[in-house]
Amino acid sequence: MSTRLHDVFGLYQFTPGRRIFALTKIRDKAREEDWGALVELASEAIEHDQKALHLHRRWQTLKVKAKKTTHPQPESDQRGTREIDADLDSTLGGWHQALQGLLRSSRLPAELRVSAQTLKDELFPSGVKAITQQPYIDAIASVKSIVAQANDQLPDGVPLKSHVDRLGYGHFIQAIDALSDELDAVIKADSPDPDVVYKDVTSANSVGQELMLEVMAEIIAQTRKEQARRGRFLAPILDQNQAIAELHMARHTVVDVNPTTGEPEEDEA
Asked: DSSP secondary structure string, 148-187?
């Protein structure tokens, strides 16, 4: 079972600006109440995300420049990001649906149902949309994590390969791995500095999300018998999560916000 706070809390992946905006509000409240530990955690997270935001903007700028200066290949030679991403989403959705189908059948052997339940719980703890509705770079990272988990390549992960083999789902693993590689290659081709910027953006965003969730964990732990106070401190994060959820439901792109005002920023990519 995953012990990452991202999987435990099940929130949407935030952009750096959204995290800074929410965490700044929380830090201000903590200072008003002289909550030193929370101020320290929030400050650490904000400092990290200010760097993450810089990397994110740099990467977005490089993508725009690359699109303006690179001559696109004919459609017959290379698929675009939207087409590949749609293929990846369909494959992930098909696999998730297959697992749900096994669980709905009462006539299948118990060991098959156990394997289906284990794979669903470990690989899709927040459902398939939590992956398919992520930005490209985050979705790729999530898929690579699934592939590693399914192949028992994570030292602290639950062994899953036997369940994959029992259900004959190796073809799904191969397909999403290949599609994520294809999407990765097309995105990197858009940037004149892909090896450094792309990897740094992915890593920084993942770390920033975990740091924000550590702030949430501190709030929850210290307000066990103070539900109203807990709600006040968690509100900035929950508000942003709700805003992201509404964007997903409306099938709109999740753009970042100004970290000071909270106003949506134009997506240049």
From this structure: HHHTT--TTSPP-HHHHHHHT-HHHHHHHHHHHHHHHHHH
pLDDT digits (tens, 9 = 90+) for 153-198: 876 678 899 999 999 999 999 999 999 999 888 877 765 555 556 6
Phi-psi region of 11 (alpha: psi -120 to 50; beta: other; left: phi over 0): beta
Tell me which of 106 and 123 has the higher pLDDT: 123
Q: Do residues 6 and 124 make contact, with C-beta atoms less than 8 angstroms apart?
A: no
**76, burial (CB in 10 Å: exposed 0-12, middle 13-18, buried 19+):** exposed
| Residue 26 amino acid letter | I
Judge residue 133's burial from the number of C-beta atoms within 10 Å of its C-beta, 0-12 exposed, 13-18 middle, 19 or more buried.
buried
Domain definitions of the chain by residue range: 1-70+194-269, 82-189
Q: Is the dihedral of CA 256, 127, 142, 159 positive or negative?
A: positive
Kindly state the tokens that stand for 10. Answer: 């099940």
SS3 95: helix
1-30: buried (b, 16+ CB within 10 Å) or exposed (e) per residue? ebeebbeebebbbbbbbbbbbbbbbbbebb
Q: Which residues of 48-59 are buried (b: 16+ CB within 10 A; e: fewer)?
A: bbeebbebbbbb
Q: What is the pTM of this model?
A: 0.57
